[in-house]
Amino acid sequence: MQITKEMSIIEVVQSHPATIEVFRNYGMGCFGCAAARYENIEQGASAHGVDIEALVADLNKAAFAK
């Protein structure tokens, strides 16, 4: 299942550990943040001033790289 901006950060990190580095590269240490438990990717990206479309694209690349 493709990653979308509506998914929770913690759900994505738990399902696809390779995405941790993507979040880090965007300056989002979300996987260790308490907000990750209730924020979705769009909310987290907005709080950090991150381009949501680019982030989601890179998360999907990392999660589904073969």
Provide keyphrases for this structure.
66 residues, mainly alpha
Explain how this protein is built.
The protein is an all-alpha fold. The chain has helices at residues 9-15, 19-25, 41-48, 52-63. The mean pLDDT is 89.
In short:
Helix content is 52%, strand content 0%. With 66 residues, it is an all-alpha fold. The longest helix is centred in the C-terminal third of the chain and has 12 residues, at 52-63.
The percentage of residues in β strands lies in under 5%
Radius of gyration: 10 Å
Oligomer, anyone? single chain
Low-confidence stretches: none
SSE-based structural type: mainly alpha
- Can you count the beta strands? 0
Query: How many distinct helices?
Result: 4
Helix content: 40-55%
SSE pattern, N- to C-terminal? HHHH
Ends distance: 15 Å
What's the overall average pLDDT, rounded? 89
Largest sheet geometry: none
Principal-axes shape call: globular
Which helices and strands occur, and which strands form pairs?
Elements (H helix, E strand, L loop, with lengths): L8 H7 L3 H7 L15 H8 L3 H12 L3
